[in-house]
Every structure is written in structure tokens, then in C-alpha cells.
Design goal:
Hect, E3 ligase catalytic domain fold; 18 helices; about 10% strand
């Protein structure tokens, strides 16, 4: 059998030569085989990869099928229009044409390149010519890929969406994004459920109960000739709901450039950062308003996985973790009168449960103690603030006193002072030196607290003090206080909870601060803070 291989990539179709079309490749190969006496009359079979890049071979089913037949010994020759049809990867192409296929006894013919492995295998320059052509094909592919990428990015900068539109939208004849009524009904329903406080899993359950069409089935319904088939049993999942509700497209915002290739011509890509994306507000009609979309985001993130929590119990959302596996601990919804967090992680024989009320008391205690520590440091800083110039003056004062003491001693040795006079003078100077050195030590302690030489530490200290002043008059624990002071709460058992505070490292570096403490609740707590005034200099 003679294998006639044709390939056309999307880029070839848009930017290449007309002669590269599948129809023209078929005609060229058929005419060539017919005109060759050594090939004429033999079974021929076309293998076509249409709309597939030539940079990689493993994603081309027709080529893989042809190579499999070659390995089975069922194909005696492979004919292509030119070597670039086989591959634009120079190394793969040379290896395939010069080594892999000839070792299987398969003849390789590239019509336009004038290459025939049976004829050219003994020609000294054949390998060099083949390598050069393969390199040029590889360069062409990467250059074309670069140009296509630049063209796409240019379109993205102008707000032109070359991608498909999400579920609930369609493109009109001019390529504009318009609302699809059937899909938009489902999108609207999902947002209404999210705004009512339901979790993504609960929303999916309602959509399935109401037999709402899924994106895949709607696509299959609209395009029966496509690759998707209608699945009667297709269902919504929590993941699908989350992807839908968090998509800013539904509020009329177009976001382009969410992913970029890692390398030119490569298949690997990465998520882009916010600064790399192109965002266009009001690019099309939204299915929901911007305000509704923002409210839905808050509603979806404020509750736990099991369902929406009452606002009064949302103090610790995103802060509770299992002490064994490190996973987030969900809010337990079946205890309405006594809500709790239960470590349903699969790593406990009996999952520990911590009541929200007990946890709130314990966290409130340690947060208050850290706030008191911060305010105590603030008071001491106000009382003992010494500038750099003042510290230099004090250091100079110590040196002066020492010189005066030496002068008094020399006066005594020369007979200018009696022993009693010298001792009285020395006692006065010793007291003066001790006072100056005490003030210097005070200044050094203040410098240490302020974190001089560590701008980050000083900023964090100032931030802790500012937050403590802000929440000082709050009668109880609030969500804002938890976000400000609590890094995480780790459940090790029903009576063993670790509370990690945000500024422990700052206060533990100051003497008398961060000595630890306890809680009067049933939960064991590592407070990480103590009375700031207890060991500060007076």
C-alpha cells in the first residue's frame, strides 16, 4: 500500500498558499503516483489531518495511523507534497525521514522538494539538504506561530473576541456577542439562587431538579453536526455552577488574554496575571447587572460548602483548618441552635466538633490581648520616644562624664584635691553617668521596638497599632477583627484549638510581650500575647 499524507493547519489555511489546501495536496499526490511506473497500479490510501498544526506529531491522528501501518509492515511508501506536511519540527522530521521510516523499509517521497529516500539515500549531500529544509520548515512554523500570536494579541487589545462566547450567549452574523434566550434563562436562574444564599452545590441540585439544560447539551442541540452529542442524563455540578457565577462576562465585562503560550509554537500555556489581561467593561449586554454580579460573588464566598450561614456566624469563614490534614473545616449546618465547625476530613475516627459560640469567646479573648499589647507598645513609644540626634547627644554625654572623672582623678593624683573631695566628685559623676546610660538603654529599647533597620517590621507594628485603635471600642468580636488579627484557627480536637495571630512575631520580639496566655473557655488556646507593660522599662 502507498500512503498519501496530507496536512493543513488553521494557520496554513489563513496565512498559507492556496497550493497547501487539502484538495490541491490530494490532486498533486494522485497525479504524481499515477505518473510513476514504480508506484502506478498499487493500492493507495489518503491520510488527512485537516486543521492541525505540524509542530507536534502526537496530536495528529491520521499521521499516527499511517505510522502504525508502517510499523506493521503494511505500507511500503509514504508520499507527501513537501516535507513540511510531515512535520515542521526539524529534529522529528529528519529522524522520521532518514532513520525511522527507512529502518522499517518504508520509502519516503516529498514531491515538491524533489526528495526520494530510495534514490537519495546514497547521495552524500542528501542528508545536508534534508536537514536544511527541515530547519527552514521549523523556523517557518515558529515565525508563523509568532505572527499569529501577535495578531491575536492585537485583536485582544482592541477588544475583539476571537474565542467562543460562554453559555447564555451567541454570536450574530457580524460576530457580535448577543444574548441567547434559552441559555440566558438558566444563567439568570443560577444567579437568583446564588443571591438567595444557596451554595454552588445547592444551586446545581435545583437546576437539575428543574431540568435546566446544560452547556454541552445546548451546544449539541444547536449544532447537531458538531462533535457533541446530546446526553439525556447530563447534570449540573457545583464546579459548573461556580465557573458560571464567577464569570464576569455575565455582567457585560469582556476579559481577554486569560492564558498565554509558554513558548512560541508550543502547546503548553499558563494563566496570566491581572496586569497581562485586557478587560473591557460594558463590552456587551449583561444577563445580570454589575451590582447583582458583585453581590453574587460575596454570597458565594461568604458561606461554607454546606450552605449559607447566617451573617452573625460568618466570623471565621476561610480561617478554620484541620490539625491533621490541613484542609479547610466546613461549617456544620444541621445544628441551627448551636452552630459548629466539624472536621469532616476523613482523617478522624470521630470528627471533632467545635461550637461557634465557644470558639468566638476564645478568639475574642486572644484578639483582645493582642490589641492590648499593641496599645501598650503605643503608650510606651509615646512616653519614651527618643530621636536619633538625642541618642547621639546622650552618647556624647557619657564620653564627657568619663573625661571629667579622669580629670578629677588626675587632680587628686597631683594633689589638687583631697581624697574626700575626689570621692564626692566621683560619686556625683558616677550618678550622672548611670543616669545617662539608663536613658541610652531606654533609647535602644525604643529603637528595637520601632524596628529600625527593618522597615517591614516597623510598618507591621504601626499597622497593628492602627487596627487596635480602630477596634478598641468594639463591644464584641467582628468579622473585620478576625480578618485583621487571626491568621488561622486549627482544630486539633474538640477541646484543643490553636489560634494563630497575625502579629505574634512582632510582639514576641519585645520583652514582656507575647509570653502566652490561656482562655477561660473549654477550648485550649495559644494566645501568643501578654500584658505589654509588665516588663517594659519604667
Amino acid at each position: 500500500m502507498i500512503g498519501l499524507y496530507c496536512r493543513l493547519s488553521v494557520a496554513d489555511g489563513e496565512h498559507g498558499e492556496e497550493s497547501d489546501s487539502i484538495a490541491n495536496q490530494r490532486m498533486i499526490l494522485a497525479d504524481f503516483v499515477t505518473g510513476r511506473a514504480d508506484l502506478r497500479g498499487k493500492e493507495r490510501r489518503f491520510f488527512v489531518d485537516d486543521g492541525i498544526s505540524g509542530t507536534h506529531a502526537d496530536n495528529r491522528p491520521a499521521l499516527q495511523e499511517l505510522l502504525a501501518l508502517c510499523r506493521e509492515g503494511r505500507c511500503e511508501a509514504v508520499v507527501v507534497k513537501d516535507l513540511s506536511r510531515l512535520s515542521r519540527d526539524d529534529l522529528f522530521c529528519v529522524d522520521l525521514v532518514e532513520d525511522a521510516l527507512p529502518s522499517l523499509g518504508v520509502r519516503v517521497i516529498a514531491v515538491a522538494d524533489g526528495y526520494d529516500s530510495l534514490r537519495d539515500r546514497d547521495r552524500p549531500s542528501a542528508g545536508t539538504e534534508l536537514g536544511f529544509k527541515a530547519i527552514m520548515n521549523s523556523w517557518y512554523s515558529k515565525d508563523l506561530s509568532f505572527k499569529v500570536t501577535q495578531s491575536i494579541r492585537s485583536s485582544q487589545r482592541r477588544g475583539v473576541n476571537l474565542n467562543t462566547v460562554p453559555f447564555g450567549y451567541a454570536k450574530d452574523a457580524e460576530g457580535n456577542c448577543v444574548i441567547d434566550p434559552e441559555g440566558a434563562e438558566v444563567v439568570r436562574r443560577a444567579f437568583d439562587l446564588a443571591l438567595s444564599g444557596k451554595s454552588q452545590a445547592q444551586i446545581a441540585k435545583v437546576l437539575n431538579a428543574e431540568r435546566m439544560v446544560t452547556p454541552r447539551n445546548l451546544q449539541a442541540k444547536r449544532h447537531p453536526e458538531g462533535k457533541w452529542e446530546v446526553r439525556p442524563g447530563a447534570r449540573w455540578s457545583g464546579t459548573m455552577v461556580k465557573s458560571l457565577v464567577t464569570n464576569p462576562h455575565y455582567k457585560g465585562t469582556l476579559v481577554l488574554g486569560k492564558r498565554r503560550s509558554v513558548e512560541v509554537g508550543g502547546r503548553r500555556n499558563r494563566k496570566t496575571g491581572d496586569d497581562e489581561r485586557y478587560v473591557f467593561d460594558g463590552a456587551h449586554e449583561g444577563i445580570v447587572t454589575a451590582r447583582e454580579w458583585e453581590r453574587a460573588q460575596r454570597a458565594m464566598t461568604s458561606g461554607a460548602t454546606g450552605g449559607a450561614m447566617p451573617r452573625s456566624n460568618r466570623l471565621f469563614a476561610g480561617r478554620i483548618f484541620c490539625g491533621r490534614c490541613g484542609r479547610a473545616v466546613p461549617y456544620r449546618t444541621d445544628r441551627k441552635d448551636d452552630p459548629a465547625y466539624t472536621a469532616y476530613c476523613g482523617c478522624w475516627e470521630k470528627a471533632p466538633t467545635v461550637a461557634v459560640a465557644s470558639l468566638e469567646r476564645a478568639v475574642n479573648l486572644v484578639v483582645r490581648r493582642q490589641m492590648e499589647a499593641a496599645l501598650g507598645v503605643c503608650r510606651r513609644l509615646a512616653e519614651a520616644e527618643v530621636t536619633e540626634s538625642e541618642r547621639s547627644r546622650l552618647a556624647a554625654g557619657v564620653a564627657l562624664v568619663k573625661r571629667r572623672k579622669m580629670a578629677a582623678y588626675e587632680g587628686y593624683r597631683c594633689g589638687g584635691k583631697t581624697p574626700e573631695e575626689f570621692r564626692a566628685c566621683k560619686a556625683g559623676l558616677d550618678a550622672e553617668q548611670a543616669d545617662i546610660e539608663r536613658r541610652l538603654r531606654e533609647a535602644d529599647r525604643v529603637r528595637a521596638v520601632l524596628g529600625c533597620g527593618d522597615a517591614v517590621a516597623r510598618q507591621r507594628l504601626e499597622r497593628a497599632i492602627a487596627l487596635s485603635k480602630r477596634f478598641a471600642d468594639e463591644p464584641g468580636l467582628t468579622r473585620d477583627m478576625v480578618e485583621a488579627f487571626v491568621s488561622k484557627v486549627v482544630i486539633h480536637g474538640e477541646d484543643d484549638v490553636e489560634i494563630a495571630l497575625a502579629y505574634d512575631d512582632i510582639f514576641s520580639g519585645v520583652a514582656g510581650v507575647g509570653d502566652g496566655g490561656g482562655s477561660d473557655s473549654a477550648i485550649a488556646v495559644d494566645s501568643g500575647a501578654d500584658d505589654v507593660d509588665s516588663d517594659m522599662p519604667n
